[in-house]
Amino acid sequence: MKRIYSSILLYASCGLLCVNVNATTDDELKKRIEVLEKSDKQKTAEINRLKNDNVITGAGLNQLIQSFDAFDDRFHIDGFMSIGVGTIDENDVEYGRTTLNGGGGPDFNADTFLGVQMAFTMSDAAEVVTQLVSKGTGQDAQVDAEWFYLNYRFDDNISFQLGRIRAPIYMLSDYKEVGFTYPWVRPPLEVYDAVPVDHSQGAKVHYRNFFGDYEFHAQLFYSSSIDKGKVSNFDADRVRGSVFDIGQENWMVGFGIFDAHVKVELTDENAIALTEGLATISGILGVDTPVFIDLNDEVVSLTNVHFRWDDGDWQVLAEAQQADYEGFFADFDSYYVSAGRRFGKWFPYLLHMGNRTTDDDERDAIISMVTPLIPLSSNVARLANGINSMSFESKSYVVGVGYEITPRIKAKFETQLVTDMNDTLGPFKLVNGNSAPISDDIWIYSFVIDTVF
Fold first, then answer.
1. 61, 370, 402, 417 — which has fewest CB within 10 A?
2. Are 292 and 390 in contact (CB under 8 A)?
């Protein structure tokens, strides 16, 4: 076809040239022939290009589509989002680590999250998992990598994770930011705020097996972490622990043990005042600063027990834990129990939680020691607040309801009463320079939209 097309062009060209042959010189004729030959080569190249394009849009395109399908099978992406608003009926206080602030009107930051989880399968046994989260409390929509680890499955029972992992301290550790997975607006802070270790760098082994009708899980982990707490920044070394769960389809019970060596940088002004004041008084007395304020090697040990029941209608969740610190921070117990029932798309629930310090006698002894010397200090109020802030006690009662807007979108509203704080700050932190005593009954109102995609 190409030769016929070229011949036609040449014959036609020669015919035109013959008509005007008397008017042209040999040089002009040669130039016209060269132009026509060049044009013929360009058209031939264009025809070949179109033929090649036809190959790409045919078998080549199918191959390209298959490559994309193979990549899609290996790469998975999921996401979650919570858009929340809350308010506290007490001025200049902050609720736990949520930064939910009282007295400034509705707060849209504390319970707002956006997260994306990506998993890339490299083989039947290995995959890389990454979770990116942007929190409403961050600056300029800052995105943090909550997880990034290599997961390797030795067989159907044993898997190994290496990288940035979520220490499985609590029953809902892996889903702490995924509000769609639990019934409340936020996890019970009296328990989930206890140890400020959201993630750590290290390794975790997960064992899973069935024994008759019972499913058994065991997790062992070892890591290190730098995290921000309620009154300090934690630099945690030798974070290690183990968690064991057993259950059936409708229920699960388990327990975990955890310990870590931490170095602490104080950020709360009351805690800073406490350490500075005690150091000053120790100098006045001519004695060593008490080990109580040695922050170079805090040791924390935590024990957690948990229970879950969910038969499709009723859901019961409960956790209790005990934390022991050797040194500056207070020992405490905390717990929660929650019960709710599904009525179609509605899920009303009740939640009760509480916490209290268990070593107040140590701080009472220090207060007794420094009281006679208070007139010698210019920071009496700050020192007293610093000492008192280390003890806490509270109980909370929550009434809430959830509604399933779509299978992937839920709305929740809850009213919470925090009470029985017995002249402590309970789960709150003073902000904006507030040093006044707070009410013993504080109400919190919260609403959130949770979705997964």
1. 61
2. no
According to the model, what pLDDT value does residue 42 have? 65
Q: CA 436, CA 419: separation in Å to the nearest integer? A: 17
Q: Residue 375: enclosing H or E segment and its boundaries?
A: none
How many whole angstroms from its chain centre is CA 362?
35
> What is the pLDDT confidence band of residue 437, given thresholds at 50, 70 and 90?
confident
Q: Are 91 and 428 in contact (CB under 8 A)?
A: no
d(CA 244, CA 246): 7
**Structure-model confidence comparison of residues 91 and 18, the more confident one:** 91
The answer to whether residue 403 scores a pLDDT higher than 60 is: yes
- For residue 267, the tally of other CB atoms under 10 A from its CB is 13
152-176: average pLDDT = 92
Topology adopted by domain 78-452: Porin (2.40.160)
Dig out the tokens for 19 from the structure: 């008509």
Please report, as a single letter, which amino acid is at residue 83.
Answer: I
Q: What is the four-CA torsion angle of 254, 260, 266, 268, rounded to 10 degrees?
A: 10
HSE-up of 211 (CA within 13 Å, CB side)?
7
Structure tokens at 7: 């011949």
Residues 197-209: what's their mean pLDDT? Answer: 89
Place of tokens 């905390």: 334
Measured between alpha carbons, how far is 320 from 333 in angstroms, rounded to an integer?
Answer: 8
Residues with Cβ within 8 Å of residue 120, at least 6 apart in sequence: 74, 75, 76, 127, 128
13-27, 86-100, 153-167, 333-347: which has the minimum mean pLDDT? 13-27
Nearest to 114 by CA among 149, 143, 76: 143
Distance CA 349, CA 336 (A): 13
Residue 439 tokens read as 């009410």
- Tokens coding 22: 């008397």
| Parallel, antiparallel or unpaired: strands 158-165 and 143-153 | antiparallel
Task: Output the pLDDT for position 319.
Answer: 98
Distances (CA, A) of 147 to 1, 130, 141, 163, 451: 62, 5, 18, 8, 20
Q: Which residues pair with 270 in a beta bridge?
A: none
Query: Mean pLDDT over residues 289-317, rounded?
Result: 80
Instruction: Please classify residue 155 by burial: count the beta carbons closer than 10 Å to its beta carbon, then call 0-12 exposed, 13-18 middle and 19+ buried.
Output: exposed
Helix (H, G, I), strand (E, B) or coil at 200: strand
Q: Show the 3-state SS of 134-160.
A: EECCCHHHCEEEEEEEEEEECCCCEEE
Phi-psi region of 96 (alpha: psi -120 to 50; beta: other; left: phi over 0): left
Domain extent listing, the chain: 2-65, 78-452
